[in-house]
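If you are new to this repository, start here. Below is one unmodified record pulled from the training split, so you can see the exact layout before writing a loader.
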Amino acid sequence: MALAMEWVSRITTVALEMVLPGVFGGWLDKQFGTAFLALAGFVLGFAVGFWHLLRMTKAAGRRSAESSRSAHVRVLDSDPNLESDTEPPSRHGGEPPTSSN
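And here is the target side for that same chain:
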């Protein structure tokens, strides 16, 4: 649930980044009697919002790949059936048995 809320927050932020510059440009158009600031605001907002969305998804993809790699390593480390380069500890509580010749 927390992950879903995090993404809702991110998407809302991107949507506002895309829309608010155009709305502000429309307000400026009314103030100054122009007709191009709203369009410029929407174009700029779309570009910035899309760039931010791409950065967020790349960062999330890297975090996901890193967490899946570390989870894979944890599984491999905890699997007792996998061969290891080191020998298991002795059952006698310490040193391996030595020959008494």
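Two things worth knowing about this chain: The CA atoms of residues 37 and 73 lie 54 Å apart. The two ends are 67 Å apart (CA to CA).
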